[in-house]
């Protein structure tokens, strides 16, 4: 089994742009996504899909 490099796939926090404080924790590949990640995910507090942006 290949050894996983911690800095190649860091854990990141995605925060909701709706201002509800909802967040998701995920990993990303720095080689494929060197910029900040933006994903549309479900925010249960507003009960719809909104953009979640990577926070540091």
From TrEMBL:
<dbReference type="GO" id="GO:0006412">
    <property type="term" value="P:translation"/>
</dbReference>
<dbReference type="InterPro" id="IPR011332">
    <property type="entry name" value="Ribosomal_zn-bd"/>
</dbReference>
<dbReference type="InterPro" id="IPR038584">
    <property type="entry name" value="Ribosomal_bL33_sf"/>
</dbReference>
<dbReference type="Pfam" id="PF00471">
    <property type="entry name" value="Ribosomal_L33"/>
</dbReference>
<dbReference type="InterPro" id="IPR001705">
    <property type="entry name" value="Ribosomal_bL33"/>
</dbReference>
<comment type="similarity">
    <text>Belongs to the bacterial ribosomal protein bL33 family.</text>
</comment>
<keyword id="KW-0689">Ribosomal protein</keyword>
<dbReference type="InterPro" id="IPR018264">
    <property type="entry name" value="Ribosomal_bL33_CS"/>
</dbReference>
<dbReference type="GO" id="GO:0003735">
    <property type="term" value="F:structural constituent of ribosome"/>
</dbReference>
<protein>
    <recommendedName>
        <fullName>Large ribosomal subunit protein bL33</fullName>
    </recommendedName>
</protein>
<keyword id="KW-0687">Ribonucleoprotein</keyword>
<dbReference type="GO" id="GO:0022625">
    <property type="term" value="C:cytosolic large ribosomal subunit"/>
</dbReference>
């Amino acid at each position: 089994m290949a050894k996983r490099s911690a800095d190649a796939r860091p854990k990141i926090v995605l925060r909701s742009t709706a201002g509800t404080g909802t967040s998701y924790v995920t990993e990303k590949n720095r080689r494929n996504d060197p910029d900040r990640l933006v994903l549309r995910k479900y925010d249960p507090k507003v009960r719809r899909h909104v953009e979640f942006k990577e926070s540091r």
